[in-house]
What we know:
By secondary structure, this protein is an alpha/beta fold. It has helices at residues 10-17, 21-28, 36-49, 55-62, 76-79, 83-98, 111-122, 140-147, 176-189, 205-218, 233-246, 258-270, 288-291, 305-324; strands spanning 67-72, 102-107, 128-132, 151-154, 170-174, 195-198, 226-227, 252-255, 280-285, 299-302, 335-338, 341-343.
Amino acid sequence: MTETASRPTLEAVAARAGVSRATASRVVNGGDGVREPLVERVRRAVEELGYVPNQAARSLVTRRHDAVAVVIAEPETRVFADPFFGLQLRGISKELTAHDSQLVLLLTEGRDDHARVGRYLAGGHVDGALVFSLHLDDPLPGLIHGAGVPTVFGGRPGWGDGPRDTASPVYVDSDNRGGARAAVRHLVALGRTRVAHITGALDQTSAVDRLDGFRDVMGDADPRLVVEGDFTPAGGERAMRELLEHCPDVDAVFAANDLSAAGALRVLRERGRRVPDDVAVIGFDDMLPVAEQTDPPLTTVRQDIEEMGRLMARLLLRDLDRRTAKETGAHGASGVVLPTTLVRRASA
């Protein structure tokens, strides 16, 4: 039998620092109104004693759980196969870790999972939610609204009129339309005249915005030059085969993301089409594990995916701090759109 040392208590911290328990509690729980010399004494006592706050007791004081739900509206097979999600989660995790907050990952395999996520958020387990990869018919925004948790969305929300529009959603997005325009203009500047577009899943606003950017430049292009994909390599392969079947004279392709572009490149290589000599190809995302490993390396539109995640978390944490401080008034713009840039490599 071994004896386990008792955990240091808040009373022990107060005694070591020579302050009242109430003063020690305010310092430990991030409260205001304590003079800086006393704050330093309490912090030093916490470090010397190895004091770890009781989370349950702390939550009663701060009404915070120091946990944030990250909700990805995709099945786990998609999330763990697509580097986009890993980059965004890395940005979110870095920001939450810097603020001593935990990340709780929630994925949705189907409609039953939507209800489960809604119940979890309504159960008071987390302070707020970060939600991305929503689809237009997704019930999650309504469930989250009903749960009453502060939320930041990744990507421009695209739901129509209804009860979810009673408040402006806070979101972080990239300039999808402007980035698509830059990509297509580059292809046109190369002298390409039969420019095709492999879209993403058109029930997501990022895919719609990139299609709109393509149309901004190409105008009344042959409708056969636009083929719907789904942001996956397999979708890019299917779309490229359809393009070559119906438009064999295609000489350029703008794909809605790097994975789709990688699938298109594989089909072009199979069919003996040289890239970029016969067909120039541009993607979207600039995910280095993909863009630098394709054959040839991929020209693409760069969006800072990791920074999007960090900014989502930062906006949510600021909102939570305001609520804790019971601040009122406007909290700034509801939508933040980050710039995109064209990165030239060998494919176009």
